[in-house]
Specification:
- There is one protein chain.
- This protein has about 200 residues and is of the alpha+beta class.
- The chain has two domains: about 1-120 and about 190-200, Alpha-Beta Plaits; about 140-180.
- About 50% of the residues lie in helices and about 20% in strands.
- The protein has eight helices and five strands; from the N terminus they run βαββαβαβααααα.
- It has helices at about 20-30, 55-70, 95-105, 125-135, 140-150, 155-165, 170-180, 180-200; strands spanning about 1-10, 40-45, 50-55, 70-80, 115-120.
- A five-stranded mixed beta sheet has the order 2-3-1-4-5.
- Strand 2 (about 40-45) and strand 3 form a beta hairpin.
- The radius of gyration is 17 Å and the shape is globular.
Length: about 200
């Protein structure tokens, strides 16, 4: 069985006064609409958590949430796991887990604190796409995220304008500054590339 394992480690957690962000982030991930995890995210040790995904759109949604928080070293490992998977995420075994561990370690000194590891050449394509996507998201202000969230909920720009009490022109300006179209395309591309890597065709 080919899956994606996400191993995520909090940045700066050993500094004095650092807050444990894991519970709040796990709660936020649980609240994502249409989240389809093969095995749920759970804390593995200390300030680290892990989940198993076989749905590319779910993986993309999780990555966007983590990149948005800008507080994590993110390791994405793609490959085989021992089947059947145990009920507990952290009890799983297989190449995808090994790749995820290597990726999260490398992420600590990598662009956007994210790495992708796997057994196929196109993992580099996926990693590059996510890095470019992260660069778009990093420039998004709270006002930009406000528009992006409402647009992702299916609202048209005129409806977003009515909800926020601003003009449609102002919504369009915020959307452009936030790179909403570019971010959406990058999210779709990341999901498509991951789907190829999860397929059994040697991509």
């Amino acid at each position: 069985m080919r899956v994606a394992v996400l191993t995520v480690d909090q940045r700066g957690s050993t500094k004095a006064g650092a807050t444990d962000r894991v519970p709040a982030t796990l709660s936020g991930l649980d609240g994502l609409d249409a989240l389809r995890l093969l095995r749920p995210f759970e804390r593995t040790a200390g300030d680290e958590f892990q989940g198993v995904v076989d749905d590319p759109l779910t993986a993309a949604a999780v990555l966007e949430r983590l990149l948005r928080e800008n507080a994590w070293n993110i390791g994405l490992g793609v490959g085989e796991v021992d089947d059947p998977l145990p009920r507990s995420t952290r009890a799983g075994r297989g190449a995808a887990y090994v790749h995820a561990r290597a990726a999260v370690t490398a992420a600590k000194s990598s662009p956007w604190h994210l790495r992708v590891e796997g057994d196929r050449p196109r993992v580099r394509w996926l990693e590059t796409t996510i890095w470019l996507w992260a660069s778009i998201l990093s420039r998004r202000t709270p006002r930009g995220w406000e528009v992006a969230d409402l647009a992702d909920d299916g609202l048209r720009y005129d409806q977003v304008a009515e909800r926020l009490g601003i003009t449609q022109s102002a919504v369009s300006q915020r959307a452009q500054a936030a790179g909403i179209v570019e971010g959406r395309r990058a999210r779709e591309l990341a999901a498509d590339l991951l789907a190829e890597l999860l397929a059994g065709d040697g991509a």
